[in-house]
Amino acid sequence: MTENLRGLPERLGRIAYGGDYNPEQWPEEVWAEDVRLMKQAGVSLVSVGIFGWALVEPRPGEFDFGWFDRVLDNLAEAGISAAVATMTASPPPWLAKLHPETLPRRADGTVLWPGARQAYCPSSPVYREHATRLVSRIAERYADHPALALWHIGNEYGCHVRACYCDISAAAFREWLRERYGGIAELNDAWSTKFWSQRYDDFDEVLPPRTAPTFANPTQQLDFARFSSDTMLDLLRMEKAVLRAATPDVPVTTNHVPLAKTLDLHRWASEVDVVSYDSYPDPHDPQAHVLAALSYDVIRSLRGGQPWLLMEQAPCAVNWRERNGVKQPGQMRLWSWQAVAQGADAVMFFQWRQSKGGAEKFHSAMVPHTGPDSRTFREVAGLGAELAETGSLVDTRPDNDVALVLDWESWWALELNSHPATLDQLDAFLAHYSPLFDANIGCDVVHPDSDLSGYRLVVVPNLYLTRAETAANLTEHVRRGGHLLVSFFSGIVDESDQVHLGGYLGPLREVLGAHVAEFWPLADGESVGVSVLDSAERGVLWSEDIVADGAEVVGRFTDGGLAGGAALTRNSFGDGVAWYLGTRLGAEGMRALLDRVVEDSGVSPVVAGLPAGVQAVRRGGRVFLLNHNVGSVAVSVAGGRVEIPGFGVEVLAG
Amino acid sequence: MTENLRGLPERLGRIAYGGDYNPEQWPEEVWAEDVRLMKQAGVSLVSVGIFGWALVEPRPGEFDFGWFDRVLDNLAEAGISAAVATMTASPPPWLAKLHPETLPRRADGTVLWPGARQAYCPSSPVYREHATRLVSRIAERYADHPALALWHIGNEYGCHVRACYCDISAAAFREWLRERYGGIAELNDAWSTKFWSQRYDDFDEVLPPRTAPTFANPTQQLDFARFSSDTMLDLLRMEKAVLRAATPDVPVTTNHVPLAKTLDLHRWASEVDVVSYDSYPDPHDPQAHVLAALSYDVIRSLRGGQPWLLMEQAPCAVNWRERNGVKQPGQMRLWSWQAVAQGADAVMFFQWRQSKGGAEKFHSAMVPHTGPDSRTFREVAGLGAELAETGSLVDTRPDNDVALVLDWESWWALELNSHPATLDQLDAFLAHYSPLFDANIGCDVVHPDSDLSGYRLVVVPNLYLTRAETAANLTEHVRRGGHLLVSFFSGIVDESDQVHLGGYLGPLREVLGAHVAEFWPLADGESVGVSVLDSAERGVLWSEDIVADGAEVVGRFTDGGLAGGAALTRNSFGDGVAWYLGTRLGAEGMRALLDRVVEDSGVSPVVAGLPAGVQAVRRGGRVFLLNHNVGSVAVSVAGGRVEIPGFGVEVLAG
Amino acid sequence: MTENLRGLPERLGRIAYGGDYNPEQWPEEVWAEDVRLMKQAGVSLVSVGIFGWALVEPRPGEFDFGWFDRVLDNLAEAGISAAVATMTASPPPWLAKLHPETLPRRADGTVLWPGARQAYCPSSPVYREHATRLVSRIAERYADHPALALWHIGNEYGCHVRACYCDISAAAFREWLRERYGGIAELNDAWSTKFWSQRYDDFDEVLPPRTAPTFANPTQQLDFARFSSDTMLDLLRMEKAVLRAATPDVPVTTNHVPLAKTLDLHRWASEVDVVSYDSYPDPHDPQAHVLAALSYDVIRSLRGGQPWLLMEQAPCAVNWRERNGVKQPGQMRLWSWQAVAQGADAVMFFQWRQSKGGAEKFHSAMVPHTGPDSRTFREVAGLGAELAETGSLVDTRPDNDVALVLDWESWWALELNSHPATLDQLDAFLAHYSPLFDANIGCDVVHPDSDLSGYRLVVVPNLYLTRAETAANLTEHVRRGGHLLVSFFSGIVDESDQVHLGGYLGPLREVLGAHVAEFWPLADGESVGVSVLDSAERGVLWSEDIVADGAEVVGRFTDGGLAGGAALTRNSFGDGVAWYLGTRLGAEGMRALLDRVVEDSGVSPVVAGLPAGVQAVRRGGRVFLLNHNVGSVAVSVAGGRVEIPGFGVEVLAG
């Protein structure tokens, strides 16, 4: 999937630095100071126009680009590049006034009205027509503008409206289904509609999974998740077609919200030239940097390790949690370098100047309400100076031995209702990722059907939906000498959410040398004793009756109704080894297990023996040591000893 | 209310055994194995066609019964009887497509769409017309089929759609009210509409209790609960009329969901030939068997002790809780025998073969995903073998000395809003039933207006709505020498939810020899000291100012604002004794009280002195000892000593 | 704002006593007993007809006042005065039947149906037309009735329907906005619509803040709160105009629900002749009397200390909480005297006779279900006798040295979403008021723009929205020698919810001698050490980076990321002193701070050195000592020692 970035690295020449720039919120008098302060802060790239639609098209079909011309001219003059937005993220109020049917609806029929943002139905032909016209005008007008470095299509697709259930969306869903299944008989088979008298006689009868008396058909729900992701992807494709026609050499991107299940990013990533990501770790959460690290590994892996753009982060606090903690002194710098170390080629913020009014006025900005004489602006300018000298990092890629497997389709299916227990895909992921992070094992996060030949160890935290091809890919990985760790409730259903019969684990039975006879979910608050290799641990959430069909039983339940039964197996298969875990261990147990699996597979950490909370990442011939602790730590590296202050960053050759 | 079962016991000849059989989910190749495995498992009765509508009527008015003919023929050939469903439980998607007005609506106007099941308005004439046509076709076609043993009307009425608030339902509600009240003046009086300016000038103005600015009129709510139960009962009557016309000698039933307040089962029970019940105790709840026991006593008592059919239970786990625990080895057998001991003449499961897809694919089945070589199928077959030899139990009835009083109308009224405290009818019931269960006292659960002459002790956990006739019935019971225990917030209102004035307890004042001057509900987490006979206990939830008008005060509040006041009274009245309790004691306190009341009344347990967790039930000349503990217990019975294993069952003559 | 009460004090001649009288709920036979018992209970004033509409106008335009004539005649004959309701609080069901568009809608579109009360859209011209006609008929008919003492307009405006979001309301909102802003450009500026592409091209595009994909525009929300309060105030003005025309000399009032943010009572108070208040402290809450005390200080201050009417309270328990505790013996009397001491000229109840049916039948009444032979009626009659001799208290006003500042606009704005932390205006108020209450400091609660010259100390618990005039008023207060205490998140935005730039505290920076550089909200459960003057305390919820610009730092954070930074400052300014607190201290910390601030300002308590839980209030030349403890306390006063029983009241000259 890796392609070149259409010249973006060459154009930027360094790790880009900047943020969303919304000068329309301010009188033009302020704009000169903006540019002056940007230069002072080392800004090289800004995103402009994201919410500009209502200003550039104040009335349907009447355009006023004058102010935006001046913004871009100012930037060009100052030598600052622009990621120019297509402005379609939020239609002006006149669209809903003229065409109320463009408003999205929830599953229960509630209309989502204007007054915030993103109030449009993604399937609406009226929205699409207006958006296309707007993008055409923008593409035409700015195709040759010297500030233009990158097209920024839409903004945070699916952030607030994850799906629309209106009648227009229903018709579009039916078209999508007709495309997928061909005939209604095939849909009936895939959806198991003989259950609960759901057989459809014609596509005309099919609906989105609107509020129903009880659990809606799970395959209907799964297909609607696919459709909703694809429908928003159509919007991106529609805009891209306009932009490519006008500017075949300008790269396009769209920025994604923090790790979420709404969009199948594997499908999205192939449609852009570079992936952009918005990262908002919660400073009140002491493990926020681990989830951030996971998300950066996910994002970087979407295009095979190609660098990505950190398109948004907060300079200090956000404003949309119940209590919004600040990034303490040094923490914004640390987390920015974390992104760079994990593959970002840009470090950008929402937003340049803190709004005086509106719904995000208490979201921090590079220039805060108190002005440039402030901690935040000083830290912003300090980081800007550091990033100016990063040319050698640009467009470099990692080489990791471990891959975790993530599949959005399986995520959607896993979190459907009416399962043996309510499971959470991200929880499952973090349970497996955290020990790897703590041990400073470099990880990629890949689609399960991707080429695994470069990896020594593949970890499958939970892959409920496992297609036959997927299982074959994992099996082949082990056969060829790779190592594999699979956790419970994997290999359960096919792409239609239909169970692989004859013993759970289905198509993974062969490689794992085991199957599962029964699931025994644990009650909330219940735990079960588990021996794992040589240590006594406790499992929560889940247990199950594992039948070893050749695998070695290396862990057993030690109490409860399954006492004595297998909890962890290890199967030598082909030239490799496949592990299977039938419960969720606590943090210590997961660490003990992962340490052993990693050791077994011959994978080495980036740096061994670091103190807790110190992340080591290799990029572009350097090793970044990131101290996520509040206090300083002493680190022995390369024969010497380095003291890294709290929230400090140390860069070594390596 | 007891009638004969229209020959069903003779036809079945034993405790029937089987489950829901939905072969339409599988290719016909599988059907032969189904019948073979059924024989292996000792299956004698299956329910067929419950969700068959969309298949037998793929388009409006076009019927295709071929596949269903073959299913019934296969069963007949194998000597397996069929409870043939009327298939009306869930209309096909085409009904909503053609007639969107058949979709039900919630109180807030939300439409409940197709995609799950039960998506029809029970008042819809269109639904009724289609359902009637379907039932006529089925009745006509299968009237003489040799497999037909029983008609299974609808399925779990009111499970997901407890009431519909749409305009069609509103019109039907008005008709129902016109029938009940005759004139609008009578409705205004009953509903106390002079309060809050609610007077209706005409029936046309009346609505269901849709979402309102605050508490809707309570009598409107109560009548709507009556209407909703009656409306669904009309559906049953409608289908029954068709079936009776075609097959006057075939019994009819409908299966009810676990103990719920939606339907007034006292009214429903008289319309069927045999009551059917679906039982889903939660294996994660260590007291699940007590609630199950209570529900079986309720269900058996609906038709005066006549045996009932356990129409559904799970062979192992269900799939609709957040965490679904398994029935551990032996537990399914134990709980099945519990139902038989408490009067079931059938033990059946949902469902025969575990679905590959759809919303219940993780609900366990007699033949699980792993196939017949499984714990579940082995336990199923084992129980089947045991049940084959149960002819002597069939159609036998208990003879209990204790009755608890349950009235759905009072349940509805009790749980309305705007009361002194939020009370829960089932909690109140369990608080009184559990000590009786623990002491192995055989209980019936009867309507308060029923003939009480056969009972020594009547327990009224909470009868907020008490009609004058009801009070007279209870009073007469004591006058004639019976014992009575009434707990707080009983005797409060009449059938229109209007307070019996002049001192609470109203029409129960005479028999109880006391009245209540004021309710003093306790705060959440608050408790109050109570002396109960000779023990010091704590009360929660409620206290009150009881004025003894002749009753002896045998318990007092010992702290708080009511310290020194009566908490428990005992009144000798006529030839009997009436107790009254003005608080909710903890488990120990309730046990102490019930032990004393039972002793006082001269009632004996089935077996005395059993270890905790061992249930003793007498049926058909045997005593069933059911060990609900995980571990084994030693029991001294009939001069000997028996060891009953965990989850074990011991059957004695008795 | 103080005006005379249009002769009401002279007419009543004493602290009025009575309650809501709804005889229409009862047969006329009961009415004679009503009047007899009222005389027995010392009743002098009753509210009549509040929910009479459906009875006096049974069909549109057909009026039947006969029964109401008889009610008023009976009262007049007995010498009991009447607050005659305009009966518009709840329209009859026929209104919604004829005009469904009069029903209100929630933000998500849910219709609020009839069946409870208040089911009308306040902007509905149809409702207004019908209401006006009704009020005209009532005014005309009873203008000269001898029982008429006071017009009772509407009832509890905004209690259940705080705002309506329907299309009619939307149109009215647009008219209101046009009036407020003149042009759409001004609205766009005020609402900061350049953010998120929200620019309106015309007023026609503007909507209420209906359910949106995410946070609706905050100024839209704020203006909608203003509009909703103003719209209901229009209803009051509409009725008042009719009444004034018919009876220029009869005072008008409307009763307000317990301290709530729905209505801007500063705007409402100037429209009535006397303010009426409904008070429902929760007997289960041991601090309920403190919130009650605060609310009475608020209500009394609305018209500059002019006496107010306690229009409703419960004689014993209410019925709308989950668990409704009783007022214990003496508690109703105590809380009634508390209201009188804090300025009430009437003590009234909801309601006279406890309903037999309907949604409030379990709400206590002066004559309970058990009848007059009851604790409640005896306590009611006892208090009635006491209140008969209170002529000298009538129409007297307090003279307090301390004012707290409350502004409904700031309350609305503070509790909008998307803030640094979720804050609660009443919590902030109670945190500052409770220490003052405990120290028996007499307080008023005033609008921040009111004349502060009479106060030594002004306390600003939280004034997020601070207009420039407001800041000037507070600044001038200190300049002239007053003391001021301001707590965090004050002075943040202007009337359009736009931030005062250049350092938080904005226009309060000068008087406080400090500004805030950054907010550091604390996580839920987190606390931070704070030195306050000489004591070590803990702060929760909030901390911040305070920069002293001349103020003395008298408290510092002692741990966390701000350790060493200012937490409390004291600024000598002009002839006065201004304190600023940057966190929320616990109860002890707030007490230590307030004690010091009070001492500093030279303010004295009503009575010093009272035991905890004893409230001292001065009114009309007396000092009321109110013992809110369950047990008795010994008090040393005026050289002697008085024992006040639990829930007792002692009145001293003073």
Automatic annotation (TrEMBL), chains A, B, C:
Alphabetized UniProt keyword annotations: Glycosidase, Hydrolase, Metal-binding, Zinc
A cellular-component GO term for this protein: beta-galactosidase complex
GO biological process: carbohydrate metabolic process
Highest taxon of source: Bacteria
InterPro entries: Beta_galactosidase_Trimer, Class_I_gatase-like, GH, Glyco_hydro_42, Glyco_hydro_42_N
Binding of Zn(2+), residues: C121, C164, C166
Catalytic residue positions: E156, E312
Binding of substrate, residues: R117, N155, W320
Glycoside hydrolase family 42 N-terminal domain segment(s): 20-389
Enzyme class: hydrolase
E.C. designation(s): 3.2.1.23
Domain spans labelled Beta-galactosidase trimerisation: 401-603
Family annotation (CDD domains): A4_beta-galactosidase_middle_domain (cd03143)
Pfam families for the chain: Glyco_hydro_42 (PF02449), Glyco_hydro_42M (PF08532)
SUPFAM superfamilies the record matches: (Trans)glycosidases, Class I glutamine amidotransferase-like
Molecular-function GO terms, alphabetical: beta-galactosidase activity; metal ion binding
Catalytic activity annotation: Hydrolysis of terminal non-reducing beta-D-galactose residues in beta-D-galactosides
Family: Belongs to the glycosyl hydrolase 42 family.
Protein name per its UniProtKB record: Beta-galactosidase
Native source species: Saccharopolyspora shandongensis
